[in-house]
Every structure is written in structure tokens, then in C-alpha cells.
Write a structure and sequence with these properties.
Helix content: 40-55%
Largest sheet: 3 strands, antiparallel
Number of helices: 4
Length: about 110
């Protein structure tokens, strides 16, 4: 398995599927809550449905952790963007997941991709 040196993360930084997909959505550009919900559901082909409670609780927590921030939006909708810290957390999580996939391939649990 490929090992990379990363900063240890606190338990609060372990990403839930909702947090991972919210960060992935915002890494592609600013969105309001409803836009995030639809981006996540489209990316996962409906496998991850974010209800209002789950979505806004995650947004509130990630805003408090400074992974995302509220930005100027038009109208009454709140618009969010990913912060530098959020980008770092996302990269760390994607690296962690890539390590797991690599291990699974090396253990012949997943086929090699062409």
C-alpha cells in the first residue's frame, strides 16, 4: 500500500459521506443549499439523498470548522464556497480513499482499471 505522510486528523475531521459530497460539490464552484443537494444527488445517481436536516446540519458544522464559508449571493438564498482548509481536508480524504482502493487492487479485491 502506498503510504503518504499526512497530518493526523481529529475525529471531527473524519468525513461523513454527506460532508465528502458537499465538499466535492463546492470544489466545483459556489452553490446555495438547494444546489448542493441536487449536485450530490446527481453525482451519486440518487444513492445519497440529503434531507434538509442532514444537509443544513452538515453545512453548519463545516462552516463552523471553516471548511466552507457563506459568500455574497443574490436574493435571499445563502451561497457557500469551499475554503482553503476545506480544500485541504478534501484532498486528505481523497488521498485516504485512494490508498484504500490501491490496497484493494493489490489484494486482488478490485480489478485494475485500464
Amino acid at each position: 500500500m502506498t503510504k503518504t505522510s499526512r497530518n493526523p486528523r481529529s475525529p471531527r475531521e473524519l468525513l461523513t459521506p454527506a460532508a465528502l459530497h458537499i465538499l466535492l460539490s463546492l470544489a466545483q464552484g459556489e452553490l446555495h443549499g438547494y444546489g448542493i443537494k441536487h449536485a450530490v444527488e446527481a453525482r451519486t445517481d440518487g444513492a445519497l439523498l440529503l434531507g434538509p436536516g442532514t444537509l443544513y446540519e452538515a453545512i453548519h458544522r463545516m462552516n463552523a470548522d471553516r471548511w466552507i464559508q457563506e459568500v455574497e449571493g443574490s436574493g435571499r438564498r445563502r451561497v457557500y464556497s469551499i475554503t482553503d482548509r476545506g480544500q485541504e481536508v478534501l484532498r486528505e480524504e481523497l488521498d485516504r480513499l485512494a490508498d484504500i482502493v490501491q490496497f484493494a487492487r493489490e489484494a486482488d479485491l478490485l480489478p485494475e482499471t485500464p
